[in-house]
Amino acid sequence: MAERHTKYLSAEDKAVLATYGHNNGAGIGIRPAVLVVDVTYAFVGEERERASEAAKKCRTACGESAWQAVDALQDLLDAARVKGFPVIYTKGGPRPDLQKLGAGSLKKAQAEPVRTARNMRDRNDIVDEIAPGPADIIIVKDKPSAFFGTPLLSYLVAMRVDSLFVTGGATSGCVRASVVDAFSNNYRCTLVEDCCFDRFEASHDMSIFDLGAKYAAIANINDAVNMIRGLPDNLFALGTAS
Question: Which of 158, 168, 79 lies closest to 126, judged by CA?
């Protein structure tokens, strides 16, 4: 692991790590899909600015780190689409009145900032820079995991997907929940760290470390793109949305 992933570890933690090891294998199968978790204006923000500034306009926005992940995601998605691999997006549900009945409302630290003319865009929209294509799948979810209460698993079974490149945000929240559920359903995961983001640097780094120790392989964008390019063409016969 990179130094930034271990800088929060104590001396005892590092001693345990030396014994425990950190296996980074078994992340890719032979029929992968790309999972893009919640790369929406709600979690990215509408402008390239520090997270502390983005949060003044939308409290969940992650700011510049999210936009850097969007930049890297464009390269990953381009490589996947050349190969014809499935690309699956998740986004938040359109019924905030129903969400208020759930546990999520218990964790709101403060009220949402007042919306202005500048940020009136629907925050559940996937950001334009990585907009879904006609063959891509969009899944609406109400809980952190992309699997919980959604048809994601049925799509993966139907397409005979055996592994996932996981991207999006937040690394410590919805990405982590989705990786754990994918692992629990016996899917191999490669977490593309450059394509993930979080509002807290420590949460991002330690989540990458922890997921890599337990549930996923960790890859940077260059390695992930090369993995995709090294796989055969025409593994999937994807149609287009009507």
Answer: 168
Q: Can you give the residue ranges of every domain in the chain?
A: 8-102+117-229
Query: Dihedrals φ, ψ of 218, to 5°?
Result: -110, 130
- The CATH number assigned to the domain with range 8-102+117-229 reads 3.40.50.850
Instruction: State percent of the chain over pLDDT 90.
Output: 66
Q: How confident is the model at residue 118 (pLDDT cuts 50, 70, 90)?
A: very low
Model pTM score: 0.88
30-64: burial string, b at 16+ Cβ within 10 Å, e else:
ebbbbbbbbbbbbbbbbeebebeebbebbebbbbb
Q: Could you tell me which residue, 188 or 93, shows the higher pLDDT?
A: 188
Q: How far apart are CA 40 and CA 67, in angstroms?
A: 11
Query: Residue 91 in contact with residue 138, Cβ under 8 Å?
Result: yes
Q: What does the block give as tokens for 229?
A: 């390019």
